[in-house]
Write a structure and sequence with these properties.
CATH class: Mainly Alpha
Helix content: over 70%
Distance between the termini: 34 Å
Structural class: mainly alpha
Strand content: under 5%
Low-confidence stretches: 1-11
Number of domains: 1
Order of helices and strands: HHHHHHHHHHH
CATH architecture: Orthogonal Bundle
CATH topology: MetI-like fold
Largest sheet: none
Mean pLDDT: 84
Length: about 280
């Protein structure tokens, strides 16, 4: 008997070398637009078609970054900002996951806490600044607390919505197999909500990078936000743009780290992306 295996079933996983080449190819494609824009602006300024005083060309920004790096200032500012974002992201995400999961799992708890959180979510980030300074002083505590607040709300919303959005039929199947309590949560609920939780964490991380600027404007002596304020006060647009570019690079790197760390837990997904 001639048994033919369908093409989809006979496919073998791509070797690590192919995955590596795919990652580098994706990075190269992603770099086309910013590199093209930077090269175009450099050409415009060097040709004399624009002054480049308020928006410096890449060559001048590179000189500023090199000058800051040589003196060790750039590393100090990056380290200070990374530490604040890391601590604030950890605190805000842990609180968002725990409270969001509890609110999604328990209707009574959600009815008690959700209206208050939704009201606080509408408060602008800078409105927290004077209160945190009054409570925690002008040092690291107030800055980390502000970042944690920025991370908490999107994580809480994402986790709560993902728990509430779990398909009831999946839960019923788990109960048919006599899964209860922690076993039901571990085998059914956690895998079902994990993709949305990862998305909520990425959103929270992005807001953490936004809130760190507000946190470091509160009077920090170090950090990339301090470089922004210092550049604005001294009229250094090259330093301002350099700090913005470092923010963008660090934000992209940390987001990629979250994606890479979560990838092993999402291998079971049979999504559109995995087919391309």
């Amino acid at each position: 008997m001639d048994i033919r295996v369908p093409a989809a079933a006979s496919e073998t996983p791509a070797p690590p070398q192919a995955k590596g080449r795919g990652a580098w190819h994706a990075m190269a494609l992603g770099a086309i637009l910013p590199v093209a824009l930077a090269a175009g602006w450099e050409i415009v300024v060097q040709a004399g078609w624009a002054e480049g005083r308020l928006l410096p060309p890449p060559s001048r920004i590179a000189e500023t970054l090199w000058s800051l790096a040589q003196g060790g200032e750039l590393l100090q500012h990056i380290s200070a900002t990374l530490w604040r974002v890391a601590v604030g992201f950890f605190a805000g995400s842990v609180a968002g996951i725990l409270i969001g999961a509890a609110a999604g799992y328990s209707k009574a708890f959600r009815r008690i806490i959700d209206p208050t959180i939704q009201g606080l979510r509408a408060v602008p980030s800078l409105a927290w600044v004077p209160l945190f300074i009054l409570w925690l002083g002008i040092f690291e505590g107030s800055k980390v607390a502000l970042i944690a607040v920025g991370v908490f709300f999107p994580v809480y919303l994402g986790v709560t919505a993902s728990v509430l959005g779990v398909d009831r039929k999946i839960v019923e199947v788990g109960r048919i197999f006599r899964l209860k309590g922690t076993r039901l949560i571990r085998r059914i609920l956690v895998p079902a909500i994990l993709p949305n939780v990862i998305l909520a964490l990425r959103t929270g991380l992005g807001l953490g990078w936004m809130f760190v600027v507000a946190a470091e404007i509160m009077g920090a002596a170090q950090g990339l936000g301090y470089l922004l304020v210092d550049g604005q006060q001294l009229g250094k647009p090259d330093q301002i743009v350099a700090a913005i570019l470092v923010f963008a690079v660090l934000g992209k790197i940390t987001d990629a780290l979250v994606v890479a760390a979560s990838a092993p837990f999402l291998r079971w997904q049979d999504s559109y992306e995995t087919a391309h």
